C-alpha cells in the first residue's frame, strides 16, 4: 500500500499522541495509582501502534507494541509503578519521539531500539536485572525463528490473536514424493486446517500450491485455539502426507530476527541512507479542521457570492467607474477565494477505493471466480461531500460487475478468455468534471434479456421495445422496478437495483452511462461535477422568467434569423456547422405564460450531452454569472428538466435548467 | 368552563374562502407576507412555485387551488404560512392568518360523513369553539396525497 500521502497526517497525529504520552507520564510519576492516567497513556500508545503498523514503520510499531504490553500490565495491576519503570517508559517515548522527528524531516524512521525493547520486555516478564538475560533471549530465537516473511498486516493479525489468547502455529507439511495429485492433498490439508482456525499465510502462496508449483513441502501459519498435537494428528490422517511438524510461532522471535537482518542490511546501506535522508522533502506543515467548519465557511462564502451578484447588478445600473472597478476586483478575489475554499474540501478518491481490493477478493472467493481489480487514478481529488456519497454506488457497481459481469472460470476458458477476469476502476479529471469508470471484461449485457424483462415488468410495451436505441435499452437497467438476475444472489440481487445508484449519482448532479458489448464486457461511466455548490451559468430570459443554464453543458450561444430554422418532419431543426441540430423551445417545454409574438431573431443556446447536441431556444441572454446552487427541497423532487434553484442578486429565485434532460427527450 | 384535566391543542387558525382552518402550531415555522414567487414548470397546478425565504428556497402551495376553491388575487391580508413537516419545508398561501387558539381535545369531532360528497382524508376533525367552526387539517395528508397526484401528473 502506498502510504506516503498519509505521512503528513500520521506525523501530525503522532506528535499529538507523543504530547499526551509525555504529559501523562509526568502525571503518572506523581500519582502512580491513578487509573485514568494509565488508561490515557495506554490509548495513545495503542493508537500509535495501529497507525505505525499501517504505515509500515516497523520499528515504531514494535516499540509501541512493547510499550503497550507494559502499560497493559500496569493497568491490570500485574506490575506496580516505580521510578525505574517510569524511567524506561520515558526512554521509550524519547525513542518514539526521535523516530517521528526523523520521519518529519524526511527520514525513514528506523532506529536501533533493541536495547529499549529488551528493557520493556524485562518489565513485563518481571525480571529487573538488565544485563543477564539479554544475550540468551536473543541468541536462541533467531536460529529457531521461521523463514516466512510477513507483512505488517499479517503481523497485526498475529499480534491481535496472541492478545486474544489464540496460539499461532507454524506448520510444515511434507507430501510424499510419489503423490500424483499434490493440489488435492493441499486442498485437503487446508480444509482440515480451516476447521481448527484461520490460515494467515502460506509459503509458497496458496495460488502456487493449487497449481502445484512447489516441491514436496510447504509452510502454513495457523491461528488456532487447539492443541498442536490435535492438529498434527488430524493432518497425518490425510493420505500421502509424509510428515507434519506443528510448532508455536513466536512473534517476538520473528521480530528479533527481522531486526538483526535489517541491522545488517542497514549497516551496509548506511552511507546511501545518509544521502537519501537529506534529499527527501520534509512534509508540509498541516492542521486538521473539522469538516463542519469548512461547511460553515462555505455557507458564508455563498452568502457573499449572492451579495456580489447584487453589487454587480447595482454597479451596472449606476455606471460609476470606481464602483465598477471595485466590484470587478472583488469578483477576481472572490473567484480565487472560492478556489481556495473548494480545494480545502478536496480529498483523494483513494479513501473510497482503498477498501475495494479486499472486497473484490472476498466476492471472488464467495463466487468461486477469479477476479483481479485494477485501480487507476486513486489520487484523483473530489469534493468531500461527493466522497461521502459515492462509496455505496461504487460498491454496488463493482459487485454487479463481479457477480453478473465476470463469468465463471470454466466459461471464460471455453470462450477463449483469460481465466482471470479483470475489473478496471478508473478515476480522472476532465474539464469541470470527474469521471469514474468501472469496466469489466465479462459477458456484457444481454440486450434481449433486458428487453424481455422490461416488457414482463411492464416498464415498456413490446411495440416500444422495437424502437429503442442501445443506450435506451441499457437505461432500462436503471429503471426502478428492474432487476436483471433471475436467481437472487446474496450479492447484488437484494432489492436495491441500479435505479438507486442512478438516483444517488443524479442527486450529486452527475450522470451515469452504460456501454457494453456481448462477450467482451461492459463499462459503467459516472460523470460528476467537481464542485457541488457553486457553478457558472448563463442566465437567460423567457418572457418575465429567468432561468440559469450551467456553462458546463453549453457549447455556444447564437443569434440567428428566424428564417434559418428548418422544418423537418414536424420538428424544427437548425443547421449548426453542417450538423442538423434539433431545437427545443424552452417556453413551450416550461409552458411559460403570455406567449410572445414571434420575432425575426432567435436566441439559441447550443448544449451538449456526450456526443448529442441540441439547441435551446430562449427569448434573450442576460449574461454569465457564478451562482450558488440551492435545492428545491424535498417536497419538489424530480421536476423534469430542472436540477435546482438559485437566488439572484435581486433576491428572486431562478431555476437551473438541466440541459442533459432536455437533450434526452 | 373546561376542566383542567382536558388536554389543549394549540393551533394556528387561518381563513380560506371565509371558512376557518386550523393546524397544530408546532408545525408552523413562520408567517410571511406575500412575496415574489418563481413559477416551477411541470408541477401540479396548486404548486405556485418557490420563494426565497432568507436564503432558503421553499416551495409554496396555494391552498385554495388544492381544496378546489376559486383562485383569487392576492390582497394585503394574504399570507404564506411556512410549515415544517419531517424533512420538508412548505409554504401555504392562505387568505388571512387569524390567531393562535387552544382547542380542548375533547371537543374535536371526527369529520361529518355527508352522503354523496367526495371523501377528503386531509380533514382530521372539526371543533366548535364558541360560534366558530374550526376545520382541523392533517397537513401530512394535504401534502402527501399531493405528492402522489403530482407524480401521476408528471409521469402520465
Model description:
- The complex is a heterodimer of chains A (665) and B (156).
- By secondary structure, chain A is of the alpha+beta class.
- In chain A, 48% of the residues lie in helices and 23% in strands.
- Chain A is built from 23 helices and 22 strands.
- In chain A, the strands form 5 sheets. A 6-stranded mixed sheet of chain A has the order 14-18-19-17-16-15.
- The relative contact order of chain A is 0.06.
- Mean pLDDT of chain A is 79; it is low at 127-145, 270-280 and 484-495.
- By secondary structure, chain B is mainly beta.
- Chain B has one domain: OB fold (Dihydrolipoamide Acetyltransferase, E2P) (Beta Barrel).
- Chain B has 2 helices and 11 strands.
- Chain B has helices spanning 63-66, 139-155; strands at residues 8-16, 19-24, 28-33, 47-53, 56-62, 79-85, 88-94, 96-104, 108-109, 123-129, 132-137.
- In chain B, the strands form 2 sheets. In chain B, strands 8-1-2-11-10-9 form a 6-stranded mixed sheet. A 5-stranded mixed sheet of chain B has the order 3-6-7-5-4.
- The radius of gyration of chain B is 16 Å and the shape is globular.
- Chain A binds chain B through residues 303, 306, 545, 589-593, 630-636, 638-642, 645, 647, 651-655, and chain B through 36, 38-43, 47, 49-52, 55-59, 87-90, 143, 147, 154.
Q: What letter string, H or E per element, gives the SSE order of chain B? A: EEEEEHEEEEEEH
At the fourth level of CATH, the homologous superfamily of chain B is CheA-289, Domain 4
Give the quaternary arrangement of the chains. Answer: heterodimer
Name of the CATH architecture of chain B: Beta Barrel
**CATH H level, superfamily name of the largest domain in chain A:** Histidine kinase-like ATPase, C-terminal domain
How many strands appear in the DSSP assignment of chain B? 11
| Secondary structural class of chain B | mainly beta
* Domain module tally of chain B: 1
Order of strands side by side in the largest beta sheet of chain B?
8-1-2-11-10-9
Compute the CA-based radius of gyration of chain B: 16 Å
Molecular shape of chain A: flat
How many separate domains of chain A?
5
Largest sheet of chain B: 6 strands, mixed
What percentage of amino acids of chain A are in beta strands? Answer: 15-25%
Query: Which two chains have the most extensive interface, and how many residues on each?
Result: A-B, 27 and 24 residues
Amino acid at each position: 500500500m502506498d502510504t506516503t500521502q498519509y505521512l503528513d497526517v500520521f506525523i501530525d497525529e503522532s506528535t499529538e499522541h507523543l504530547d499526551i504520552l509525555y504529559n501523562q507520564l509526568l502525571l503518572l510519576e506523581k500519582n502512580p495509582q491513578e487509573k485514568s492516567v494509565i488508561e490515557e497513556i495506554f490509548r495513545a500508545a495503542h493508537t500509535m501502534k495501529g497507525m505505525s503498523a499501517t504505515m509500515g514503520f516497523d520499528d515504531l510499531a514494535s516499540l509501541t507494541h512493547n510499550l503497550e504490553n507494559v502499560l497493559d500490565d500496569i493497568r491490570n495491576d500485574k506490575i506496580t509503578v516505580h521510578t525505574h519503570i517510569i524511567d524506561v517508559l520515558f526512554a521509550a517515548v524519547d525513542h518514539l519521539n526521535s523516530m517521528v522527528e526523523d520521519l518529519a524531516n524526511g527520514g525513514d524512521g528506523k532506529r536501533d531500539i533493541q536495547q529499549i525493547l529488551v528493557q520493556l520486555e524485562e518489565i513485563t516478564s518481571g525480571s529487573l536485572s538488565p544485563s543477564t538475560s539479554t544475550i540468551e533471549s536473543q541468541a536462541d530465537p533467531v536460529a529457531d525463528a521461521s523463514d516466512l516473511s510477513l507483512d505488517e498486516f499479517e503481523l497485526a493479525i498475529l499480534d491481535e490473536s496472541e492478545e486474544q489468547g489464540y496460539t499461532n502455529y507454524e506448520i510444515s507439511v511434507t507430501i510424499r514424493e510419489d503423490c500424483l495429485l499434490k493440489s488435492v492433498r493441499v486442498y485437503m490439508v487446508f480444509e482440515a486446517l480451516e476447521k481448527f482456525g484461520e490460515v494467515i499465510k502460506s509459503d509458497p502462496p496458496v495460488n502456487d500450491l493449487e497449481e502445484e508449483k512447489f516441491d514436496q513441502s510447504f509452510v502454513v501459519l495457523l491461528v488456532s485455539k487447539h492443541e498442536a498435537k490435535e492438529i498434527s494428528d488430524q493432518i497425518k490422517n490425510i493420505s500421502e502426507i509424509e510428515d507434519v511438524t506443528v510448532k508455536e510461532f513466536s512473534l517476538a522471535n520473528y521480530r528479533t530476527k527481522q531486526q538483526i537482518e535489517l541491522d545488517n542490511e542497514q549497516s551496509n546501506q548506511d552511507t546511501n541512507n545518509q544521502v537519501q535522508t537529506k534529499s527527501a522533502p520534509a512534509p508540509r506543515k498541516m492542521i486538521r479542521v473539522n469538516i463542519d467548519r469548512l461547511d460553515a465557511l462555505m455557507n458564508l462564502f455563498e452568502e457573499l457570492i449572492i451579495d456580489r451578484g447584487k453589487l454587480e447588478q447595482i454597479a451596472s445600473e449606476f455606471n460609476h467607474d470606481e464602483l465598477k472597478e471595485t466590484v470587478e476586483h472583488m469578483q477576481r478575489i472572490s473567484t480565487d477565494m472560492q478556489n481556495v475554499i473548494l480545494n480545502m474540501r478536496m480529498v483523494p478518491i483513494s479513501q473510497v477505493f482503498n477498501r475495494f481490493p479486499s472486497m473484490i477478493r472476498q466476492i471472488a472467493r464467495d463466487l468461486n471466480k477469479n477476479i483481479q481489480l485494477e485501480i487507476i487514478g486513486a489520487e484523483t481529488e473530489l469534493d468531500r461531500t461527493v466522497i461521502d456519497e459515492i462509496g455505496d454506488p461504487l460498491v454496488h457497481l463493482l459487485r454487479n460487475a463481479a457477480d453478473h459481469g465476470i463469468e465463471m472460470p470454466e466459461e471464460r476458458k471455453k470462450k477463449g478468455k483469460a481465466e482471470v477476469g479483470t475489473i478496471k476502476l478508473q478515476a480522472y479529471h476532465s474539464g469541470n468534471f470527474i469521471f469514474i469508470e468501472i469496466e469489466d471484461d465479462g459477458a456484457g449485457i444481454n440486450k434481449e434479456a433486458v428487453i424481455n424483462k422490461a416488457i414482463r415488468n411492464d416498464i415498456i410495451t413490446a411495440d416500444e421495445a422495437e424502437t429503442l436505441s442501445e443506450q435506451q435499452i441499457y437505461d432500462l437497467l436503471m429503471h426502478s422496478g428492474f432487476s436483471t438476475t433471475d436467481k437472487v444472489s446474496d450479492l447484488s440481487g437484494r432489492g436495491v437495483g441500479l435505479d438507486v445508484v442512478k438516483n444517488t449519482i443524479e442527486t450529486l448532479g452527475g450522470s451515469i452511462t452504460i456501454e457494453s458489448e456481448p462477450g467482451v464486457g461492459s463499462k459503467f461511466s459516472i460523470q460528476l461535477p467537481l464542485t457541488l455548490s457553486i457553478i457558472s451559468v448563463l442566465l437567460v430570459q423567457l418572457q418575465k422568467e429567468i432561468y440559469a443554464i450551467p456553462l458546463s453543458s453549453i457549447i455556444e450561444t447564437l443569434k440567428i434569423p428566424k428564417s434559418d430554422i428548418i422544418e423537418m418532419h414536424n420538428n424544427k431543426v437548425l443547421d449548426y456547422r453542417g450538423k442538423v441540430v434539433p431545437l427545443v423551445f424552452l417556453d413551450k417545454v416550461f409552458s411559460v405564460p403570455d406567449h410572445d409574438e414571434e420575432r425575426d431573431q432567435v436566441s439559441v443556446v447550443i448544449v451538449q450531452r456526450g456526443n448529442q447536441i441540441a439547441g435551446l431556444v430562449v427569448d434573450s441572454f442576460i449574461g454569465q454569472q457564478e451562482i450558488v446552487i440551492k435545492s428545491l427541497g424535498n417536497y419538489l423532487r424530480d421536476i423534469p428538466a430542472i436540477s435546482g434553484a438559485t437566488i439572484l442578486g435581486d433576491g428572486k429565485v431562478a431555476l437551473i435548467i438541466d440541459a442533459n434532460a432536455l437533450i434526452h427527450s | 368552563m373546561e376542566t383542567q384535566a382536558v388536554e389543549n391543542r394549540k393551533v394556528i387558525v387561518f381563513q380560506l374562502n371565509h371558512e376557518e382552518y386550523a393546524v397544530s402550531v408546532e408545525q408552523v415555522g413562520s408567517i410571511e407576507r406575500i412575496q415574489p414567487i418563481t413559477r416551477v414548470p411541470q408541477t401540479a397546478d396548486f404548486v405556485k412555485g418557490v420563494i426565497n425565504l432568507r436564503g432558503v428556497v421553499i416551495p409554496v402551495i396555494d391552498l385554495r387551488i388544492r381544496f378546489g376553491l376559486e383562485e383569487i388575487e392576492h390582497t394585503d391580508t394574504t399570507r404564506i404560512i411556512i410549515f415544517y413537516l419531517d424533512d420538508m419545508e412548505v409554504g401555504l398561501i392562505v387568505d388571512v392568518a387569524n390567531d393562535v387558539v387552544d382547542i380542548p381535545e375533547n371537543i374535536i369531532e371526527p369529520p361529518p360523513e355527508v352522503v354523496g360528497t367526495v371523501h377528503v382524508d386531509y380533514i382530521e376533525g372539526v371543533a366548535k369553539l364558541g360560534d366558530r367552526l374550526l376545520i382541523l387539517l392533517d397537513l401530512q395528508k394535504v401534502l402527501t396525497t399531493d405528492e402522489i397526484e403530482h407524480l401521476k401528473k408528471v409521469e402520465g
